[in-house]
C-alpha cells in the first residue's frame, strides 16, 4: 500500500514520509542548525521528486529538524542555548532541545540508513564533503558524489555518530556556509540523496553514481583565546606541517594564539566570522587517507 504525505509526529516539526512496498527505511534530515540552508532546500526538492518516482521501502524526510534555531537563524536553540547536534539521543523530559532530540531519535531508531545534511552555517565554511564512519558509510559517502570524503571523528551527541554506534549506516555532509544559500550546493545534495537511495534499493529505476572522492582524516583545532580571528590559510589550501593558518589577536593587535598545521594536509574547513571565542572551531586541516 502506498502511503505518503506530511505529518507532525514531532511537536512543531514538519515530517514528510513515503512508504511503498517492502524495503529498508531511510531517514533524511537537515536544518539541525538554523543557519544552514542548502540541506533544507535540497530535501524539499527531493520530496518533489519522490512524489512522482517509484519507491521500494520507506523514506522519512525532516527538512528543518530544529524550528527553534531556524526561526532565530542560529546554530543554537534560542530557548535553551543548546546545540541540537550535540544532545542526541536526547531526553524526553529534558530542556526543549533535549526533548526535540528525543522525538527525532524515535524516528531514527526506525531507520536503517541516515543522511544528515549540514553546511558551515554563519560561522564556518566547508569544502563540499561527505562524512562517513566505517566501511558501510564509506561506500555511501563515495556514491554521494562530493569531491571530499571525511572520516568523521566520533563526537558524542551528533545524530550521525549516534546512529553509527547503533549499527546503522550514517552519512553526514557539509557544503560551504558563511550564512549563504548555494544553489550548486542544493543541486549537489539533491543528486547525492537520490544516488544513495538508489544504492540502498529504494529507487529501483535509478542507478547510484560512480564512487568518487578523496579520503581525508582529521579534526578541528580549537580556539584557546578570545579575539579577532585573522586567517592566513584559505579553504582548500594544501599546507605543510608547521604552516601558519590563522591567528587570534586582541584589541591591541597582539597575537594571543597562532593556529599551525600539525601535519601535511588540506584545509577542509575554516571559521568565516572575524571574531572567535575560547573553545570555538578555528581551522580543520585533514591529511590524505
Structure commentary:
- The chain has 289 residues and is of the alpha+beta class.
- It has two domains: 3-214, Aminopeptidase; 219-288, RNA polymerase II/Efflux pump adaptor protein, barrel-sandwich hybrid domain (OB fold (Dihydrolipoamide Acetyltransferase, E2P)).
- The chain has helices at residues 38-50, 67-71, 96-108, 134-144, 159-165, 183-199, and strands at residues 3-10, 13-20, 25-30, 57-62, 113-117, 124-132, 148-151, 169-177, 214-217, 220-222, 227-231, 238-239, 244-249, 255-260, 265-271, 275-276, 281-288.
- The strands form two sheets. Strands 6-7-9-17-15 form a five-stranded mixed barrel.
- It is globular, with a radius of gyration of 19 Å.
- It starts with a strand and ends with a strand.
- The model has no long low-confidence stretch (mean pLDDT 97).
Task: Please tag this protein with its features.
17 strands, 4-stranded antiparallel beta sheet, OB fold (Dihydrolipoamide Acetyltransferase, E2P), 5-stranded mixed β-barrel, globular, 289 residues, 34% strand, 2 domains, alpha+beta, Aminopeptidase
| CATH class categorisation of the largest domain | Alpha Beta
Chain-averaged pLDDT: 97
Unreliable stretches (pLDDT < 50, length at least 5) are none
The radius of gyration computed from the alpha-carbon positions, rounded to a whole number of angstroms, is 19 Å
Give me the count of strands.
Answer: 17
CATH fold naming of the largest domain? Aminopeptidase
Helix/sheet category:
alpha+beta
Q: Which strand order does the major sheet show?
A: 6-7-9-17-15
Query: How is the quaternary structure best described?
Result: single chain
Number of domains: 2
Task: Profile the largest sheet.
Answer: 5 strands, mixed, barrel
Q: Strand share of the residues?
A: 25-35%
Amino acid at each position: 500500500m502506498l502511503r505518503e504525505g506530511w505529518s507532525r509526529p514531532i511537536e512543531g516539526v514538519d515530517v514528510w514520509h513515503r512508504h511503498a512496498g517492502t524495503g529498508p527505511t531511510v531517514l533524511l534530515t537537515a536544518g539541525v542548525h538554523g543557519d544552514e540552508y542548502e540541506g533544507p532546500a535540497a530535501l524539499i526538492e527531493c520530496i518533489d521528486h519522490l512524489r512522482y518516482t517509484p519507491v521500494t521501502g520507506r523514506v522519512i524526510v525532516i527538512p528543518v529538524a530544529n524550528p527553534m534555531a531556524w526561526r532565530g537563524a542560529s546554530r543554537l536553540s534560542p530557548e535553551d542555548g543548546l546545540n541540537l547536534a550535540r544532545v542526541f539521543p536526547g531526553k524526553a523530559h529534558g530542556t526543549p532541545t533535549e526533548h526535540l532530540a528525543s522525538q527525532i531519535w524515535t524516528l531514527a531508531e526506525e531507520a536503517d540508513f541516515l543522511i544528515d545534511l549540514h553546511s558551515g552555517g554563519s560561522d564556518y565554511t566547508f569544502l563540499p564533503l561527505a562524512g562517513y564512519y566505517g566501511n558501510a558509510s564509506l561506500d555511501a559517502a563515495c556514491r554521494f558524489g562530493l569531491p571530499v570524503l571525511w572520516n568523521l571523528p566520533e563526537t558524542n551527541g551528533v545524530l550521525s555518530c549516534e546512529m553509527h554506534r547503533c549499527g546503522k549506516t550514517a552519512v553526514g555532509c557539509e557544503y560551504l556556509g558563511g550564512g549563504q544559500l548555494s544553489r550548486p550546493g542544493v543541486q549537489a545534495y539533491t543528486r547525492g540523496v537520490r544516488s544513495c537511495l538508489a544504492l540502498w534499493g529504494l529507487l529501483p529505476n535509478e542507478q547510484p553514481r560512480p564512487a568518487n572522492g578523496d579520503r581525508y582524516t582529521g579534526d578541528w583545532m580549537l580556539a584557546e583565546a578570545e579575539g579577532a580571528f585573522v586567517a592566513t590559510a584559505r579553504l582548500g589550501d594544501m599546507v605543510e606541517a608547521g604552516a601558519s593558518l590563522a591567528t587570534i589577536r586582541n584589541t591591541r593587535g597582539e597575537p594571543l594564539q597562532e593556529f599551525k598545521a600539525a601535519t601535511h594536509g588540506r584545509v577542509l574547513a575554516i571559521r568565516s566570522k572575524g571574531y572567535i571565542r575560547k573553545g570555538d572551531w578555528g581551522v580543520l586541516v585533514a591529511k590524505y587517507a
